[in-house]
Task: inverse folding
């Protein structure tokens, strides 16, 4: 049964369901929700399909249910992850196409932390210095060719 309803002016409605009963919208293909401005122009769209959930809008946000803190937001210029911790669980780790800036990188307890650039060099830069500290173990530097330690204004 195919059924389409067209309304000539905006329609507003509330859907009430019994407490602890989910509201189910079901379709053979997908469910799409459109938002329009006062001139009728499409300003946002959310489509839930069998293979994907797509949102088309100027800004997309995911908020915590408690307190409303923004956990994830995306717009044309940036993506912000607002959780206290970002955990990447894939066996291949995380791959970044460009630079990464963070105040803290650490491995899970009892796991090694590995920063690797398999085909090029690895560069760590900071205007006030880079510190490598092995508080409870040894510090080892290994390379295939030459190992250079250089200070442009001080001692090594």
Result:
């Amino acid at each position: 049964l195919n059924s389409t309803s067209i309304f000539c002016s905006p329609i507003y409605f509330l859907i009430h369901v019994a407490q602890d009963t989910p509201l189910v919208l079901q379709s053979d293909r997908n469910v799409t929700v459109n938002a329009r401005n006062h001139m009728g122009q499409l300003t946002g769209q959310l489509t839930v399909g069998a293979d994907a959930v797509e949102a088309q809008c100027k800004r997309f946000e995911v908020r915590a249910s408690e307190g409303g803190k923004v956990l994830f937001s995306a717009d044309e210029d940036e993506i912000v992850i607002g959780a206290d911790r970002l955990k990447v669980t894939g066996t291949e780790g995380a791959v970044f196409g460009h630079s990464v800036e963070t105040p803290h990188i650490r491995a899970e307890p009892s796991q090694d932390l590995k920063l690797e650039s398999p085909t090029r060099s690895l560069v760590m830069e900071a205007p006030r210095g880079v510190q490598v500290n092995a508080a409870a173990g040894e510090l080892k530097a290994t390379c295939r060719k030459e190992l250079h330690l250089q200070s442009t204004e001080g001692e090594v």
